[in-house]
Structures are given as C-alpha cells and as structure tokens.
Amino acid sequence: MLSAKEFKTTTITEGKGKCGFDISGNKALVAWNQCLREYDLIEHKKTAETVLESNMLALAIHPLNSQVFAIGDMRVDTYDDIQMTAPSLIVTLTGKAIEIKYNKNGKIMGIASEENSLILNRDTKISKCKPGHDGMILSCAFDPKDRFVCSIGCDGCLIVYQLSQVPQLLQRYTISKQVSPDAFQKLQSDFHPSGNSFWIAGKINAQYIITQDEPQDLQQQYQILHQSEICIIRWIHNNCVGSCSLDGEIKLWNFKSFTDLSLHWYFNIKCTPLYMKIIQNLFYLFDCNGNIIETTLDPPQQEVESIYKDKNIAFRDLLNQKVKKQNNQRIEEEQLGDENVEENIDDLNGFIGGNEMEKKQKQNMDSGMQDVLRPGETLPSRGRQYLCYNTVGTIILCKNTNMIEFEFFDSTFYKKFKISNSQRYAIGTLNYRGCVLASKGPNDLDEQGYLVGDGKSIVYFQQFIGDVDDFEFSLPEEEGVELVTIGNDWLAIMSDHAICRVISFCGLEILEFNTNRAIVSMCSYEHLLCLVFHDTSPMLNQQVLRGRIYDIDLQKQIEEFDIFLTPFSSLSWIGYSDEGLLSIQDSKGSIRIYQNNKWIEVYHNSRYWLYGIQDYKLCLLKTDQPLASMKQEMIQQSFEQQFVCFSQDEKLIANYRQFLTQLIILNHELYRWNEFGKYYYARNDDKQNDILLRYTQNLYDSNKMEETQKLLRKFRVDLFKQILNESKDKAIEFFRCHIKDEYDMNSIISLLELQKEKSTNNKELQKLLTHIKLLQRQQIIKQQQNFGIDKKPQSPKRQGFGLQKQNDQVNMNQIKSILEHREQQQQQHQQQQQHIQQYQVQSQRVETQQEDDEFNPFAKSANKKQSSIFDIGEKRKPTQTFGTQNIKKKN
Q1: At 447, which CATH number?
Q2: With a threshold of 0.70, does the pTM exceed it?
Q3: Pseudo-torsion of CA 316, 318, 323, 325, nearest 10°?
Q4: Which residues on neighbouring strands pair with residue 523, listed in sequence order?
C-alpha cells in the first residue's frame, strides 16, 4: 500500500460550493460565479478568463479536441475558443442544465437538466430518453462500448437506456429514497472500462453494482471502505478504481474481481472533493474550496504488464530462480545431515518447479499464439493496403474507390491494371503465372462486428500469360479463406478449418488434406508447398513453430522441420527466393535461410522489411512496416552471415564471409539441379509459352559450377595465408579441419615451397611443410577408405598418424598402388557398360526400327550411358557434396 508523499495545491477560485470543472490534456476549465477561467496545469497559472451571462455549472471538454467545450445553463452551446466568440447552439432547455457529458469518441452528448428526461445530441439531432424520471436528472454516464446510457434522478432511481436512433428503456432500478438536489454529488457513477458493470457511489461501506450478466439484479459491493459516505467513484483502467468520501479521504483500489479488491494508494485532503480525474500517472482533484490538487501516483500494473514484461525480466526471473535453488540447496546441506538432504532437496525442487510451472502457464496465457501471417501483406494506411508485396509486383486494395490495383516491377513483363472489388476481396498473392484473390466470407465483418455479404468465401484466379480463362469459385458454407499461394501450375487455399485445397489452373481440385494444426503461414515454389504451423503453445513470449514441405507432383509430404526464431520474437515473413531458397524473417529483424536441414542467419537489421530474394541478394525496404500510401526506398543487400573469429583482421573476416556466401550458393545450386532441373530442358524448348522459364534459365551449368569451385579454392588458400601470418599452429589446424580438396592441398603446398625458397629461415618452413604434407597423406587415405577402395582391415601401424614411427609406414608406393587398383576397376566397369549398351542399342533398333529418342540427361534410359550436369572436369556422383573429389594419379 502506497501513500501520497508530495502533492501540489493551487487555488483557482475564490468561492466555495458548486462549480463547473473539466480537464483535458494540460488545460483545466472552471466555471464559477458567472466567470469562465482557463488554467495551464504545467505552469500552474491562469491563461484566460471570460465573463458569462449567468452562473453556468454544466461544463464538459470534448474528449478528442481540447479546444472544443460545451457549457450551458438554460441553453447549451459549444465553443472552440475560450473567448466564446462563435457559439453553436445545441438545445434550449426549460430548466437549468446540471451536467454535460460526452461519450468516448465525442460523437454523442448527454445533458442532464431540471427536466425529467435525459437529452441526447447526436450529429446535431436531439432525442429525449423516455419514459423519464419523476423529477430532475442529477447525472448521466455512457457505456465505453456505446451500447447503453444511464441517468440518475432525484427520485432515487437509475434508468438504463439502449443507445439507438430512438433510445429504448431497458431497466429501471430503485437505488434509495428521494434525493435532495443539494446532495447530487453522492450519486456520481461510472462504467467499468469493459462495459460489463456499472458502479454507483453509495453508502459508507457499500456501493451499488449492475452487472451485464444479471441485469435484473442490483448488487451491493462491500469491499471499498471509507469512514464517511462515498461521493465519487471513478475507474482508471480495468484493474484500478478510485473512490472519494465526504471527509476528503481518497483511495485507489487494485481490482481483481468483485470480491477481491485491495487498497493500493491513499491520502486525505481534509475537505469534500467535487471532481476527480487521472491522466496517465497524474492525479487531479478539485475540492469544494476551489483548490485543484495534483500529485503523481503509480497505478497497479495490469496482468499483461506484470508477467514477463520483456526478455530482460524473463531472464532475470529465471536467473533468480536458479540462484535461489542453488543457495537453498547449499544451506540445507549445511544445516541438515546427509540423511535428510535428499528429501529436502526434492521438496524444494517441487516447490520451485510448481512456481515455475505456474509462471510459465501465466506467460503462455499472456503471450498468445501468433495469428495468421500473410507474407507481403501490410496494415492499411489512408484507405490503401498492400495485399501482396514481392519481387514480381504488388497488389493494392483501395478501399476509398473499391478497386484493386496490380503493379509490376518489370514493365516488359506485364502492364499494371485495375479491377473492381465487387466481391470484397481482402486476401491476395501473385507470381509470374498469375494472381489469386479471395474474400474472407464468414470472417468478413464490418466495424460494428456484423457479417457482410452472404458469408461465402469467393476465390478468383487470373492467369497473366497463357490460354486459361479467368475463373472463380466459392468454398463450402461457414468455411473462410485464410491463406492463398500459387505454384507452377496450381494454386493452394488454406481455410480457417485447417483444410488445404490444391486447385489446378483448369479450376478442378487435385488434392485436399487436413493439417490438424493451427496454421500460421504458407508459401510455394514450383512444385513445392510449404506450410508453417504451431507445434506447441508459446514459451516465454517465443513462438514454437514447425514447417512441412509437400511435393504436389507426388502428392505427399517430403520433409518436416523446426522454424528457428530469435528468442522473444514471432514470424514476420516467409517465402522462397527466385532460386528456390526457403527464407524467413522474424520480428527482431533476423533473416535466415534453410539449407542442408539447418537454418543459417544471413542478415540482421530490424529497420529493414524483407520482401524477397533475387540472385542470392536480399530485396529490402528501408522501413520496418511499408505503407501503401507512401513510397519506400528499395535496396539490395548481400548475405552477411554472422560467425565467431579469433582474429580482428578485417580482410580475413571479409574473406571468410565471402567464402561462406559462395559455399551457400554452390550447395543450393547442386540442390536446384536435383530438385528443379527436370523443368530446365522442357522450358527451354517452349520458351514462348512457359513463363516460369526465368526460374530455371539461371541454373548454374558445368562451367559456372567450376568457376564457383575455383573461387572457393581461392578463398581457402587466401584464408590459409592470412591465418598463417597470425599463427602457424592455427594454420595447421585450419588445414586439418577445412582443407579437404586435393587441389587446395596442392596449392597450399606449392605456396609453402615457394615461400621456402625465398625465405632465409628454412627450418621453420621446412617443418611446417613436412607437417602439411603429412596431413595431406592422411586426408588421401581417409577419402579412399570412405569411397570403399581400401577394404582391408587397418594394421596397428596405420592407426594414429600423429606418431612419427607410424608415419614412416605411409609412403607414396602405397598410395600409387591404391590409385592403380581403382583405375583398373573403373576401366573394367566402363568396358562392361559399353558392351551392355551396344547390345541394347542393336536389339532396340531391330525391334523398333525407329530413330533414337532425343537425349534427356534426367531420363534413366537403358540404351545410353548416364550423363549428369555435375560432371565438372572429372566424373563424380551427382549427390557428392563440395570438397570430396576423386584423387588423380600423381606423376
């Protein structure tokens, strides 16, 4: 429980009694004794003053525009300046205005007066709430959700009306006996911010409550306690309510439920308060002596803020739990004997584990599971919204004109165009084949939450280049579209029932399956479809996601993997590059690619927004969230893979970063030929009709592969030279761990021999050269054993090449014999293959008497020797990874 240590009191009126008062921002208005005064709450001084025609006590400032205020006596007017030069008449009354109130957005004004009906002003239209009270009205209050309005009268009754064009009476409650107008302050009221309950100031130890669940009952609340009668009750936010009593006691309460309120903060002003208002952490109170009291306070934190507010608090809590656990174990071990230690540790672990489980459960409830993510979609801005933003172009939804605009970055590919949005499309995507638009159907709600349309999701497809006509179809009833994507000759739709439908470009469904998981996002490339879904509930504000890849041609799942995100982040983008490289970006700005069953971080910057990858370069926008109403600067960024390095040499670091980038490119190009090479020759033969040729026309051929390998060899040799300048021991370890290729080994040995000739100190270089040659021999033997050439069991002398005596047993004659044996096996195998091929060719000609089919490197025909795009210089297996090449015979 806290108390006010310091507060500032400023006298703003000379008289005592009733006044009109309101605060907005840093300005306060006071109407008293035919005078209107304006005060600056920062400088604590009067800034303006105006003489009134009569003593006006009803005053209210517009909640959204502090320059506009309403004031009234026998009539109510609005003004936009303190000098009151241009009045705008609202209504003329038959009695004095007692209270004026605005609703939350300032569109509705309520006027309580000496008349028996509450007056509402909405868009300059006046309506009266009938039936009314049996006397004057003392106060009124609006529901935060603009569903109800309440009025309290001198008859001691509370009347609840429904807010509509014509207010309708919902319920009448009798609070107390007939109330004197002089005591109207005792019946001030306020809605809970959620709108689920209505609170009225009442007796010393009781307040009246009306709940939405039981509107017929008027309950009493006994948790808010004061020494005298309560005159003001105000809600600050969902879990904090303030109360004032006639004796000047001010209290703030931490509200958890109707039966669980605890005192959080209090102080006493020693006089009756008239108005109370709290703006952020500033507390303002106006008392009956004409003083405004200001102090600072810390309201109780909301539940969302109190549980693991950010990652620092989460880490600190976990660390504290760990330290507590260790300290308690140490103390228990010192105080108790060995017999009781284990039992006490188990109890302590159970206690700590229970607390951790409870915190984790609260954390999971707090963080929530990530909603559906549509890659390339942005927030609306000034009536415009990107439905899709990728390397092909953009789809812009124009709500003001009810049109959808298509723009393309390559103007030679397709011209921009527009279509009418008569079906209320709100989801879209595009690639080089075409575009897909979809409406939300049963999830298409207006601002008031009402369903728009017939509740069916409409899907529209348009092909950019081809003979397929545009078509549209609808999903089954009560099933809405969540995600859409396009492949090479199909489109996929994910519904809110977790059902994925794959539709061919002719408009027929070819595949349907259920994921049984909460889907997050979806993307596609060629014949691959990637789905991202929740694996478990979020832990410590971090989403736990997994991905699945489906082969639509084979109609089966081919891979499942984890989606790795930065701690305390969520997925913000996912998609394939133009080369088929699966990539993601999280909310912390980390960009990762998926290769060889692992995620590799290639860039990190939270101020850039990723929309695609082209030619192994990131396509970024210089903003964290693009807006369709503004143009963003587009940039391309190379991969910048993060790694740990012992040296601070910038050249070495830059060299190794380029090496890692080229290694990623080479590995992916090998994968591309295995996965997408089957489209290459077919599309080259039909360049005019196959628009997806651009996906495969940049495939690396044998020359390009060899150039990339040569570049990698150059990087390796340069790295060896740079590390050699730092330390010879580290250079030896680099050779042992990173140099696996025969060409790299020979290049490094030639480099050392050249340095040996130039250097005067030959002993150290000779020792290093001998060690390197020894490592080269070890690598050759290991590679031959891995290829299955040397199947004989190893003798004890050949184990452990680190000993000098055993190294003498490894000589060049043994290596030559191994290579000669391997060449003989290869020659015999080739001769057998040639005989088999000749026989098959002759038999095929006799049977068919037709010409041979056109050569296809990916067709496994029996009449020709297999050829592969991976034959670079010398023959090796297509699936062989970089760095494992066949060993040439040494001269």
Answers
A1: 2.130.10.10
A2: no
A3: 150
A4: 530
Cβ atoms of residues 541 and 363 within 8 Å: yes
Of 755, 781, 807, the domain-final residue: 781
Q: 666 and 588 in one domain? A: no
Q: Which of 2-11, 422-431, 673-682 has the lowest mean pLDDT?
A: 2-11
Which residue range forms the structural domain that includes residue 547?
384-638
Contacting residues for 446 by C-beta, under 8 A, at least 6 apart:
452
Q: How many CB atoms lie within 10 A of CB 839?
A: 11
- One-letter amino acid of 291: N
How far from 115 is each of 92, 112, 137, 178, 719, CA to CA, in Å? 11, 8, 7, 16, 91
| Residues 667 and 600 reside in one and the same domain | no
Does residue 612 share a domain with residue 686? no
Is the Cα dihedral 756, 757, 760, 763 positive or negative? Answer: positive
Structural domain total, the chain: 2
pLDDT at 1: 46
The structure tokens 């103390």 sit at 331
* pLDDT higher than threshold 50 for residue 808: no
| Cβ atoms 301, 533 nearer than 8 A | no
Average pLDDT over residues 342-369: 48
In a domain, 457, yes or no: yes
Which has more pLDDT, 11 or 601? 601
Q: Are 536 and 683 in a shared domain?
A: no
Structural domain contains residue 594: yes
* pLDDT at residue 865 is higher than 70: no
DSSP character for 314? H
Rg of the chain in Å (alpha carbons): 39
Note whether 436 and 581 are same-domain residues: yes
Residues 591 and 675 in one domain: no
Dihedral (C-alpha) 38, 44, 45, 50: value to the nearest 10 degrees?
10
Task: For 560-600, write each residue's pLDDT tens digit.
Answer: 999 999 988 899 999 999 999 999 999 999 999 999 899 99
Q: Residue 804 has what pLDDT? A: 35
Contacts within 8 Å (CB) and 24+ apart, 218-227: 218/173, 218/174, 218/175, 219/258, 221/258, 223/253, 223/258, 223/259, 223/260, 223/261, 224/251, 224/253, 224/261, 226/251
What digits encode the pLDDT tens for the residues 156-182? Answer: 788 888 888 788 888 888 776 555 555
Question: Domain check: are 631 and 766 in the same one?
Answer: no
Average pLDDT of span 867-885? 38
Domain boundary pick from 759, 781, 803: 781
| Those residues with Cβ within 8 angstroms of residue 676's Cβ, 6 or more apart along the chain or in another chain | 526, 580, 695, 696, 699
Q: Check: CB of residue 13 under 8 Å from CB of residue 28.
A: no
Of 81, 80, 79, 138, which is closest to residue 111 (Cα–Cα)? Answer: 138
* pLDDT on residue 877: 39
Q: Which two tokens stand for residue 711?
A: 């570049």
Q: Are residues 555 and 694 in the same domain?
A: no
Which residues have C-beta within 8 Å of that of residue 511, sequence separation ≥ 6? 500, 501, 502, 552, 555
